[in-house]
Amino acid sequence: MVDIGDGANYAPTAQTEQVVSPGEFCFAVAYLDHGHIYGQTNGLRDAGATLKSVYDPDPARLAKFVDTYPGVRVAQDFEEILADPDIRLVNAAAVPDRRAAIGMQVMAAGKDYFTDKSPFTTLEQLQEVRAAVARSGRKYAVYYAERLHNDAAWRAGELIEQGAIGRVLQVLNLAPHRLAKTTRPDWFFDKARYGGILTDIGSHQVEQFLTYAGCADATLNFARVENFSHPDKPGLEDFGEMSLTGDNGASFYSRVDWYTPEGLRTWGDGRTFIVGTEGSIELRKYLDLAREAPASKLLLANADGEQEMECLDRSGFPFFGRLILDCLNRSEQAMTQEHAFRAAELSMRAQALADAAR
User: Fold this and answer.
1) Chain region(s) in the chain for CATH 3.30.360.10
2) Which residue spans of the chain are classified as CATH 3.40.50.720?
């Protein structure tokens, strides 16, 4: 069963179409610093990819991973994975400030890379990775799980594409997370390592805005970060907010925080509100407060009336199969490289704006 109590351990799995046969698309896993690696791995395996090998310098993390995925081969070092001609993609969730350097190693070895968000902690890293992608021709894919691995969030994108609410005018994202302070590693509280709250969990929110509103870019209006109530962890930002305007005029506001109350049955009451010219959508992503948990609900109102849809376990998470086929066909059906980079860039620019205002 998926752990819904702590977002760090959120790792959905699904019955979905397997787009490749066993052994046709092999991938390796490396650097297990964040629990999202299990969601990333599940998504690839569910879509038919073959998990061949794993590497991590920490024996405890490695043992847990091997116990979860019996039969995976343990690599003696990262270079063994990079040298393996069978490995097409390396899947990783390193400490955020190391993700760019690891990705450049992977791409230089002729393999595609799939990293947890945020994919960078600085704009300089983004610039270096852009050049590495152009040089190598490889993919630098990003696990923006709050859309890619959430049933209601995925269904919202499908409905918008179908014209269910007309042209999107505004996206409002509320993204509370459970802090679970005693379970977090030291790097989690070191801003230089995780990049700040808008760089980190804010990147999820910007990616959703660009997708739902159909924007290629956006301008920043406002950004703010605070540490309201954790003076013992001065590197932690426990609250952030930002406002953007898309290049097509669409509006965006997001609040991200570490204030999920202990009595909530999931790690966060994530909500999204999308207003269009012909209707609106509300997403209750992880639970329906005081009613159901887990849940993944979508509420739609348009000219046809009002609908409530339970989306949990119904999407099949198509992103992962599309990513596998993109790696094989050198296409961009899952997510364009520019989209993945722009979401990260805008969240980092929002972080810089907020930092400058403190």
Assistant:
1) 147-317+347-357
2) 7-144+319-330
d(CA 198, CA 131): 24
Beta bridge partners of residue 288, listed in sequence order: 292
Entry field: residues in the chain: 358
List the alpha helices (DSSP H) in 10-98: 36-46, 59-68, 78-83
Whole-Å CA distances, 301 to 43, 107, 159: 31, 45, 12
CA 156 from centre of chain: 16
pLDDT per residue as tens, the chain (358 positions): 456 667 788 899 999 999 999 999 999 999 999 999 999 999 999 999 999 999 999 999 999 999 999 999 999 999 999 999 999 999 999 999 999 999 999 999 999 999 999 999 999 999 999 999 999 999 999 999 999 999 999 999 999 999 999 999 999 999 999 999 999 999 999 999 999 999 999 999 999 999 999 999 999 999 999 999 999 999 999 999 999 999 999 999 999 999 999 999 999 999 999 999 999 999 999 999 999 999 999 999 999 999 999 999 999 999 999 999 999 999 999 999 999 999 999 999 999 999 999 8
Instruction: Tell whether domain 7-144+319-330 is in CATH 3.40.50.720.
Output: yes
333 secondary structure, DSSP code: S
Distance of CA 202 to the CA centre of its chain: 10
* Cα-trace Rg, the chain: 19
pTM as predicted: 0.97
The token duo for 40 is 């990333």
C-alpha to C-alpha distances, 69 to 41, 228, 318, nearest whole angstrom: 10, 40, 22
147-317+347-357, which class in CATH? Answer: alpha beta
Contact at 8 Å (CB) between 27 and 48?
no
| Phi, psi (deg, nearest 5) at residue 89 | -140, 140
C-beta of residue 208 within 8 angstroms of C-beta of residue 309: no
Listed residue (267, 236, 244) closest to 173, CA to CA: 244
**Using CA atoms, how far apart are residues 30 and 199, in angstroms rounded to an integer?**
22
